[in-house]
Amino acid sequence: MRQRILVGLAMADAVLLLVAFVLGTALVFDRLPAATPGEAVQVLARLCAIWVLSSFIGSFMTGLVVSQGPPRPTYGRGVLTTIFAFFALAGQIIVLRPYFSRPLVLAVGVIWLLLVLLLRYVLRRRPWSERIVVISKSDELIGEVRRARHITVLDVIDPNTSGPIPPPPPDASIVVDLSVPWSRDVTRYVSATSVAGREVRSLGEMYEAHTGRVPLDHLSEGWEIENSLTRKLPFLPFKHAIDLVLVVLTVPLWLPIVAVVALLVRVIDGSPVIFKQVRVGRRGELVELFKFRTMLVDAEAEGAKQAVGHDPRITRLGRILRSIRLDELPQLFNVLRGDLSIVGPRPEQVAFVQTYREAIPFYEQRHLVRPGITGWAQVCHGYVASEEETIKKLSYDFYYLKHMSPLLDLEVLARSVKTILTASGTTPRDLAQEQAEIDEEAVDLAEDTATHRPISPADGPRKQEHRPKRAS
């Protein structure tokens, strides 16, 4: 299904490019760009073919670079497709030396980008989901997959099932749990489905794509994270260099803000202005972290505690600074010192690390890279106030470590900007509201799948389905 959606978007983008080319040609040229109509048609057809080829190259490159996540028609992927297509067009013009007009290239590019974004807008207004048949007996994991926004679980098959298994619906994918052994009949079923050309994906891969998390129960010995990071080692020095360049280049922007906030803290809450705290950094090394003080002076007189949304230790000014993340600005000096990265897992206090190290498997893996001022877990989950939430937040950290890339960093930065603009940095998690959103999404998905025929007894004996109990 993923390939079908991506191919369909690539074809639609190419058609929109043809429309943009016709409109751009009509806007730019008041007469034919050649001596005769026949020559003009040849010139424009050759340039149009180059454009269309560039569109397919852009779609292909976007599929390679953005290989994770559900194949939803996002605006980011649309913009990325147009950028790759532009570079492909420039390369072909340099190599092939065809006739081209700069105003025409600009007009077609702008019109095409607007049409691509309009298509994404229209498609995103329609509820959609990936329809899957799951082979697993993990009730917890299946429950979380069911609650994912763009997944419809048609059936669940026990890996130990014996006997005939009905074929999956034509538009469904098979999702298999690789952490458990399968019976001989289930193995034949998966093999026959794959040979028939149907999509077969691992449950862990599907889970990561739709939740932005790594299922911790499916990590064998943590080697998956280290193995993934080994392939990204060339990116780490480049990432650190980019951090330093960005911080230095933006000094005129953030340094005056630091001065103003420091003055406000000094006048309203008094001294000290800067709060220094030892955190655990890369490879477990201790680093001294700088932040604007947002709590009472004696906030940790009884020991370190997790901050929560309405923590009484937080001052009135501190609550504002935390909501728009301005309390983190002094950590840009930590980036210059080499202690932090702009994007990465947040560094934890020493006392918390000692506790989590014993309670949470593979916790030390998050120290394989430099911690960050902001991170995937922060923009997806926010503050935590319990060990259970810390485990969930750790699953986001592992996702970042496994899929770390410049594009993922850009997405984290974009979401961080949204957090700042909406002042939602310390908004407490409302479980009732979260459950209401899940129920609303379930209704949307039910409407989306109403036109599809569900699996019925006529298709064959339905296998045992493990449905998780709904949390109360």
Description:
- Residues 427-472 have low confidence and may be disordered.
- The chain has 472 residues and is of the alpha/beta class.
- The chain contains 17 helices and eight strands.
- The protein has three domains: 2-124, no CATH class; 127-211 and 433-472, Rossmann fold; 235-422, no CATH class.
- The protein has a four-stranded parallel beta sheet with strand order 2-1-3-4, with helices on both faces. Strands 5-6 form a two-stranded antiparallel sheet. Strands 7-8 form a two-stranded parallel ribbon.
- α13 links the parallel β7 and β8 (372-374).
- α1 crosses α4.
- Residues 436-447 have a biased composition (Acidic residues).
- Keywords: Membrane, Transferase, Transmembrane, Transmembrane helix.
- This is Lipopolysaccharide/colanic/teichoic acid biosynthesis glycosyltransferase.
Question: Any chance you could write out the topology, listing elements then pairs?
Answer:
Blueprint: H1 2-28, H2 37-65, H3 75-96, H4 102-124, E1 130-135, H5 139-147, E2 151-157, E3 173-176, H6 184-195, E4 200-202, H7 203-211, H8 223-231, H9 235-249, H10 251-268, E5 274-280, E6 286-292, H11 316-323, H12 331-337, E7 341-343, H13 350-359, E8 372-374, H14 376-380, H15 387-403, H16 406-422, H17 431-448
Parallel strand pairs: 1-2, 1-3, 3-4, 7-8
Antiparallel strand pairs: 5-6
Helix pairs in contact: 1-2, 1-4, 2-3, 3-4, 8-15
